[in-house]
Design goal:
Blueprint lengths: L6 H8 L3 H9 L6 H14 L7 H7 L3 E6 L5 H16 L3 E6 L4 H13 L4 E4 L6 H8 L5 E4 L9 E5 L1 H14 L4 E6 L5 H15 L5 E6 L5 H10 L6 E4 L2 H13 L9 E3 L5 H5 L4 E3 L2 H18 L7 E4 L2 E3 L6
Helix pairs in contact: 1-2, 1-3, 5-13, 8-9, 10-11
Amino acid sequence: MRRPARIQDVAAAAGVSVSTVSNVLNRPERVNARTVERVLAVVAELDYVPHPGAAGLRAAHARSIGLVLPDIANSFYARIARGAADAAYRQGYALSLCHSGDDPEREREYFSMLVAQRASGVVVVPLGADTGRLERLRRRGVPLVLADRTMPTAEGCSVSVDDVAGGDLAVTHLLETGARSVLVVNGPREIRQCADRHQGARRAARRVRGAVLEQVVTARMTVEHGYEAGMRLTDIPDGIFCTNDFLAVGVLRALTERGIAVPGDVRLVGYGDLDAAGVAALTTIRQPVEDLGSAAIDLLLDEVEAGPDHTHESRVFAPTLITRTSTP
């Protein structure tokens, strides 16, 4: 992993002195416009952020932690935030919540703000799978932990759920309750969790002779997109596995409107055990969501406080099956 850019790197690349770079960043009125433009271009190219460095940060950081989420309205991410906030509070830290909308530029801006505020570190919950984005964030020189995503320990700490095992649990349950044709209603395959849950579903289906597994992919993992998928079904399977609970609620609504009984005609399993699953009495796969947030904070603060003695970890939590009335 490339080290964060220093002010000396900016000066060398721009062909100016360190003091000129400092003036451009802090007193641009003292520097001619063409030099300002050239230096700022190099700052952007090198992704440089004025910062005292990791060692100085440990000595003089603010007792605050950034949490960057792609969608704060989504109850899954809200529960991660709750676990993180509780863990931070127990250790005497405040949590700064940042809603990225999964926008790379917005993530970068939040990191700049958190660095400027001397935040102790950042927990990032990514949605997309662009590893380059995450590498660019890590180069800012701030301790970073990924939540709901695995990362090689050589690169940093991460906390996640074993989504392959979760997909396996869901489809195994459908097959054990009598289904032989199973449809996976999935979100975009570029989302790692969607790919992993489908991989687990395939693994379960391969173990049962005569089992048939099909898949439909939705543009987004929302109730509306699940409803649309359910309304478009022509060949009704024995079982449906939706890779999140919002999709499952939408599919359930569509099947009900079409007069297709759940679980009489179709067994239905969701994923996540969000509040919507309890309200709809969905069988689902429970994730220890608050534990993700809490563990991410614990790993981050160990890195902040232990410094060179810290050892990166990848913690993977096991999902569990929760049965309700959408399956026999």
